[in-house]
Amino acid sequence: MVDLDILLAGSYNISRGNLRKQVDEETILHKLSELLDADKLTHSLGVRDECVALAVRYGADVEKARLAGLVHDCARGLDNDQLLRLATRYKIDVSNWEDFDLSLMHGPVGACLARELFGISDEEILHAVAVHTVGCKDMGLLDLVLFVADYIEPNRTFEGVEDIRTAAEQSLESAAVTGYAATLRHLLETNRLIHPSTIHSRNSLLAKLLKSEA
Ligand SMILES: [Fe+2]
Ligand SMILES: [Fe+2]
User: Fold this and answer.
1) Is the dihedral of CA 134, 97, 94, 74 positive or negative?
2) Which of the residues 100, 107, 143, 147 has an alpha carbon 20 to 30 A from that of 59?
3) CA distance 20 to 31
4) Residue 149: nearest ligand to its CA?
């Protein structure tokens, strides 16, 4: 993990003028294989392909969706200490996260890491990656494609996943709300804190759905 080690040591030049040119998919895959274990890499490939399928179905940019899906969990293999160190480096407000499961920070940290390691500069892709763990109010099309693909990629087998797959045939909003229901059930059953963005995002999606049904 040479790149990551350098990043964690804080000696990588982050100034905009030195940002890398976007690297090709083969190079991204090679770097991801250094950052993620085999299961997480398989999941990332599944999300990449599911993002493509959803993008085609719902009219999102297929190439952006493919790239967002591939890199979305690039920070998923980091431990809490590494996430906090990178969050400081990237000036991410840790107070939004520290009361909750810190691993949720792999969204915003991952977006910054994708920019720095893979040279991805497309703001839509980076936003989708940043919000994929908890969502946000008024998620855009690419945000929703990634958010839903993360739930339903073919390797996912958790209880309730088929309901989300079925809902994804109706709309992305419906699938995301069904996904949130599964997540919220799990958080309640295991007595865990619920991140406020999860509530705001779920409410804004449900309000939109109810409005469209009225
Ligand atoms: Fe993730
Ligand atoms: Fe994921």
Assistant:
1) negative
2) 107
3) 14
4) 2
* Pair of tokens at residue 158: 């958790």
Domain range spanning residue 106?
2-12+21-213
Q: How far is the CA of 168 from the centre of ligand 2 (A)?
A: 17
C-alpha distances in angstroms, 171 versus 56, 67, 141, 199?
13, 22, 11, 20
Between the CA of 214 and the centroid of ligand 1 the distance, in Å, is 34
- Burial label, 65 (beta-carbon count in 10 A; 0-12, 13-18, 19+): buried
Task: Return the ligand number nearest the Cα of 135.
Answer: 1
Q: What does the pLDDT look like over 21-33, one tens digit per residue?
A: 888 999 999 999 9
Taking the CA of 75 as reference, the closest ligand is 1
Q: Which of 20-34, 63-77, 167-181 has the lowest mean pLDDT?
A: 20-34
pTM for this model (two decimals):
0.93
User: Could you tell me the distance, in angstroms and rounded to a whole number, from the CA of residue 150 to the centre of ligand 2?
Assistant: 5
Q: Give residue 72 CA to ligand 2 midpoint distance, Å.
A: 6
What's the pLDDT score for residue 164? 98
Ligand nearest the Cα atom of residue 146? 2
SS3 205: helix
Domain holding 202: CATH number? 1.10.3210.10
